[in-house]
Amino acid sequence: MHDTPTLRTVVREQINIVARSLTLEARVVAVVLAIVSLVIGVEIANGRAGPWFDSGEWSIVGVVALVYPFAVWRRDRRFGPAFLWTLPVNRTHLVYARVFAGWVWLMAALAGFIAWKFALSLLSGLANPRILSPDAPLGVTALYLIGSAVLLALRHPLRWFLGAAGILIMLGLLERGLAAGPYAFQVFFEAPQLLAVAGRSTTAWRQLPLFAQSTIPTLLMLIVGGIALWAAALRHGENRRR
Fold first, then answer.
1. Is 120 helix (H, G, I), strand (E, B) or coil?
2. Rounded to 5°, angle at Cα 18 from 13 and 21
3. What is the dihedral of CA 29, 32, 38, 44, to 10 degrees?
4. Taking Cα atoms as reference points, which of 201, 224, 26, 31 lies closest to residue 144?
5. Judging by beta carbons within 10 Å of its beta carbon (0-12, 13-18, 19+), is residue 143 exposed, middle or buried?
6. Please, which pLDDT band fits residue 215 given cuts at 50, 70 and 90?
7. Please, are residues 222 and 142 in contact by the beta-carbon 8 Å criterion?
8. Which residue from 113, 160, 167, 159 is spatially nearest to 136, judged by alpha carbons?
9. Is the per-residue pLDDT at 224 higher than 90?
10. Nearest Cα to 94, choosing from 10, 18, 151?
11. Quick check: 130 pLDDT over 90?
């Protein structure tokens, strides 16, 4: 009988496995960046490169981080019999090792993205280009943890995503339909007591430094993501039913 592998060995192996499993995604990203580089190169030649360096890509990076866990776990069944769960390692530890491995390559991709934008900004000759928000790594990590938690906690996460999107769309249509009547959503939000509380909260929030206004929500989201991942990992414990 072989000795049980150490956690360090498991993490290192998961990092290698995730790297091999992301080959297709890496090629797609490389092609997309090559096309975008060509477009930005044309804009630089025409002197219109400024809009490409205003940190507007943060929303795109955030969406990628949220759905990135689907690529990390694409080749493994999360529930039921699967090769991954036959390894002689505590299942909860194995979940954390796989999530950490995915995070390592996500940070590597983010670093490459920042380097790519920095190189283009040098070619553009802009004086003060905005490459990316300073708290982007924390925000990307938080969204990745939340996406991983959803994927590990639910057997059919895509259905939940589509269902949530459908509910939001229906609420938007309902709000639009009731906008001119006495039951409009804004009637509730314009209540004097609610407006007073919101006004005091907004005033106190605006007195904080800009860095704190950006960092505090990110840290809260990071804490929520960590707790959600911990709760999701419990579903894959040794004694849980499959």
1. helix
2. 130
3. -80
4. 224
5. buried
6. confident
7. yes
8. 113
9. yes
10. 10
11. no
Separation of alpha carbons 138 and 215, rounded Å: 9
User: In the chain, how many H helices and how many E strands?
Assistant: 9, 0
Please state the length of the chain.
Answer: 242
Widest CA span of the chain, in angstroms?
Answer: 74
Nearest to 224 by CA among 136, 134, 133, 150: 150
Higher-scoring residue by pLDDT: 128, 178: 128
Q: Tokens 């960046």, residue?
A: 33
59-62-63 Cα angle (round to 5): 90
- Transcribe the chain into DSSP letters: -PPPPPHHHHHHHHHHHHHHHTHHHHHHHHHHHHHHHHHHHHHHHTT--GGGGBSTTHHHHHHHHHHHHHHHTTTS-SSSS-GGGGSSS-HHHHHHHHHHHHHHHHHHHHHHHHHHHHHHHHHHT-SS-B-S-TTHHHHHHHHHHHHHHHHHH-SSHHHHHHHHHHHHHHHHHHHHHTTTSTT-HHHHHT-HHHHHHHHHHHHHHHTS-HHHHHHHHHHHHHHHHHHHHHHHHGGGSTTS--
> Per-residue pLDDT tens for 71-110?
999 888 888 777 777 777 888 888 999 999 999 999 999 9
